[in-house]
Amino acid sequence: MSDIARNIRLYREQKNLSQQELAVKMRVGTKKIELYESGELTPDTETMLRLCTVLDLPASEILEKEYHSNKKTTLDNEIATLIEEMGMEKALFLLRSFKEISEADILKMLNVSKR
């Protein structure tokens, strides 16, 4: 499976769309979506633009290499673990708090906690 095929499926699933729902929104047959996601058919430029419009993504997201998807999956897993261990409320508080702190201060805190 190509990176483009993998990314089409990944972003469709992230938008909670079935292949049939995506096909309807793009005004193509479900079989076309199946072919795009299996890598048997690569969308032409016009189709890629419609796909990106429906999925609300820049084309670069779909065209990016597999490692980009893997990074995102790793981050999603880390966030899920954080929520599982701390609970949603504490995890959100922590993430929002870190947004307000400079990178230098975060590094200082991490160094202090290692001692």
Automatic annotation (TrEMBL):
Domain of life: Bacteria
Keyword Kinase: no
Keyword DNA-binding among record annotations: yes
Domain HTH cro/C1-type: 8-62
Molecular-function GO terms, alphabetical: DNA binding
InterPro entries on file: Cro/C1-type_HTH, Lambda_DNA-bd_dom_sf
Keywords for this protein: DNA-binding
PANTHER family: DNA-BIDING PHAGE PROTEIN, TRACRIPTIONAL REGULATORY PROTEIN-RELATED-RELATED
Protein's UniProt name: XRE family transcriptional regulator
Organism in which the protein naturally occurs: Peribacillus asahii
